[in-house]
């Protein structure tokens, strides 16, 4: 019997996190070499454009890669507007703070975001919600994602307040693909531990038919 797909395989989360690390590398390089926000922004945009070109060449969906590019452009514009190098990471800080609130709310109202994401990838829409065991598994695993965002905010916020641009860039890199990889692995483990023995898996929600 074939092994079930992991979350990492379904969501390609590690690859996306690696892509997100490159603009931070470019920003840090430009800022350190020239002590200029403009140079840092240019370095970030060059890296982001390189990622976009590479992904489009490999046939990835344009919308996904262009959203990443838009985020880098907005972050660069914020830093250029305020004249503070650390403000390049303000959007990242705010988005992670908002993610904590949204993910927690989704769990509380029994629409866990992890289920919505995986369900959309698998073309199930919301059919998985009619499987009580899958709903419980997605809810528990979603707390792992909440913890991921909490860790980022806890690290980014004091560094941002202290104006530590270099440390922020380093934290952005370290807390991108390594943290995402850990989050995917742990949340997948939680799902597997929560689903009862004999459950057919994420692709096959067990939906009771009305009598």
UniProtKB/TrEMBL annotation:
Pfam annotation, one family: DUF3159
Superkingdom per UniProt: Bacteria
Protein species of origin: Actinoplanes awajinensis subsp. mycoplanecinus
Protein's name in the database: DUF3159 domain-containing protein
Residues passing through the membrane, by range: 28-52, 64-80, 100-122, 143-163, 169-191
Keyword flag Transmembrane: yes
Keywords, in A-Z order: Membrane, Transmembrane, Transmembrane helix
Stored InterPro entries: UCP010219
Leader sequence residues: none
